[in-house]
Amino acid sequence: MNKMYGLCFHAVRQTAGLKSSRLLQRRAFRVSTLHRQQPFDSTLEKPQFPGASAEFVDQLEFIEPNVISGIPVYRVMDRQGNIINPSQDPQLSKETVLNFYQKMTMLNTMDRILYESQRQGRISFYMTNYGEEGTHIGSAAALNPNDLVFGQYREAGVLMYRGFSLDHFMAQCYANADDLGKGRQMPVHYGSKDLNFVTISSPLATQIPQAAGAAYAVKRENSNRAVICYFGEGAASEGDAHAGFNFSATLECPLIFFCRNNGYAISTPTNEQYRGDGIAARGPGYGMLSIRVDGNDVFAVYNATKEARRRAVAENQPFLIEAMTYRIGHHSTSDDSSAYRSVDEVNYWDKQDHPISRLRHYMTARGWWSEDDERSWRKQSRKTVMEAFERAERRLKPNPELLFTDVYQEMTPQLNKQRESLWRHVQQYKEHYPLDLYDK
Amino acid sequence: MAAAARFFIRGANSRLSISGFGTGAQSCFGAALLRLSPGCSSRTKTQRRHASHFTYQPDPVPTQYGPTQKMNLFQSVTSALDNTLASDPTAVIFGEDVAFGGVFRCTVGLRDKYGKDRVFNTPLCEQGIVGFGIGVAVAGATAIAEIQFADYIYPAFDQIVNEAAKYRYRSGNLFDCGNLTIRAPWGCVGHGSLYHSQSPEAFFAHCPGIKVVIPRGPVQAKGLLLSCISDKNPCIFFEPKILYRAAVEQVPVEPYTIPLSQAEVLQEGSDVTLVAWGTQIHVMREVANMAQEKLGVSCEVIDLQTILPWDTETVCKSVVKTGRLLISHEAPITGGFAAEISSTVQEECFLNLEAPISRVCGYDTPFPHIFEPFYIPDKWKCLEAIKRMINY
User: Taking every annotated instance into account, which residue ranges of this chain make up the domain Transketolase-like pyrimidine-binding (chain B) (predicted)?
Assistant: First the structure.
């Protein structure tokens, strides 16, 4: 963080051409939060406004927008998987690292098969996680299993790391009778009570103020739990993001905001999404500790999340992590990204700077993973995914009764009436409804 | 938004008038008027501001819930919140300005009694307040969120409609925010104009998954609010702000609940069914008396109390008996909740109807300031509607 402030000063000096370094120090935009208002003291020749505390100046000067700019990107490994600074090596065991790798590649394999299955018309929709596997696994591994997760929609790796089975993933995407969500939502809207992963909803950023509320409740339980909230750099433009940041800071919530800055909100590039220095630059404005990490470096993500989690719980305050990454796949199966970005650009990230290959370089260098291991793991993981896929496809859809339940905790008279009316109708017009596909 | 709200409060309430605009505005607007012009001009002004369009009729003193105390509506809300904080250690109350007691004084004393981590201010952001409340509830605690005016609930519309209402359904009952209750002052107040008078219940009535409740007075307010808080579904509780001080009843001190989705027949009658909720109930009660006295018509008065999911049975049973139905609310007529009631009743009671169902509601305009006496569905408009139904 100190380094960042240094950069800030530098920027001010360069752009504003101020002479007095003392003035600079005074004007150093105290990022530290003012927890309470200044006591009023009319004898001091200082501003006494309740909303700010600093010094008066007699020079007209606007603050440059790049006061907070060039926030550095924290990383542990270079692109070839070499540890840059040994003090930052998380020293994870071979088993742990192999597990990271297997989860990242399993996610990749599942994505390929489900993406293809949508292309063949077997499921209605899909969203791949290509290129962002490092952000998922690195952050998930740094949390406690009972920390509550509020996701956006592209965090399947977090669930996978926590142990959500392939059968559960497939059941949700197929909306079959085993879907924990009872077949009510589009594919990739996963959720698991057992794994403390709140069910995904489609509206963007709505989870952000909710995560603040959950973190507040968790803090009052005094149970050493934290909440993590994932979102993209596009969702960070929503009003709900502002609400969540501001509420969690003022109400002192043990919450980790994890922004996956993957370069695109569907087709909108980041330079049309915001004008400041990304999402991390917003943290200081809310009085929030912030960091930018290389999201394709699973160890950097792990270290940052681990430390943020530790401090969030110990100090009851929110942290903002901006993980820089790249969405290698299309936004969803309803999108063709070649309409707005070049194949060369995508290829660079796929071939030169991929979180999976970087971790593999690391493992190979240690002699933990060979070509043979890779070949047999690829084969095995593909087989496992295909088996789950076939099981899910064979399964019936959920009982249509579930159309009416869970609207309220109890069945209301109106809903009962509507349900009975549907059944009478379906009995009468049986041949027009695909009853045989559904559980009885 | 809140700036407007605060202006309104300070204008309306001399006791809350802690600061005005500039130094000269410390004295209350109303008091200044009285001092300056004791003649007829002040009389018309004060009439407009203080004579309401209804006569409040207190409910009989309830006997089944133990000792009672004289409370107005805001005090009965405070009493319900007090009971909740005392019995449920997870319960938290939050919103704009709730810490010092709230602009309508509904949370007075609670922060001192239960601590600042349980009764606290939030930043000024309605979508944040509701989103935060949903999160508190999802984590298993009890969330009571205050939106300072129902007129300002719209920034939270997405959180209410897309999130709170659908949480249980979309997760297959894995997660829910049933522990969330949203309170908001509601309805006309005599001088509230466009943005301190609205009755937005119909917007939320179109949203399966939430419950919408509106009390008519202090006894109902406490019992229904406690029901909303303990109900396992997210509830919106609209409080008729004109009744905060005007409505005074003997309210039980101990907690008690009044069932949701159950309308109450306040007065039995044989010729016309009058359905309303909140403030309008008191207009209807007066109209029922007038109809009896002037027209010899016997009216059955029903307080719907819960707008969603509503009690079709009680209403339809009554219309089967009377053959006539008048529904009245302050919100604009087109797409208002009266339309839903009317449609259901004609479907269920078509052959029992002696006259077309009548709706006396607000006009399809924004809520107008100085024209409020013309805008509101007052007793004369309702009485005229009854006449027309009888003579149909």
Answer: 71-246
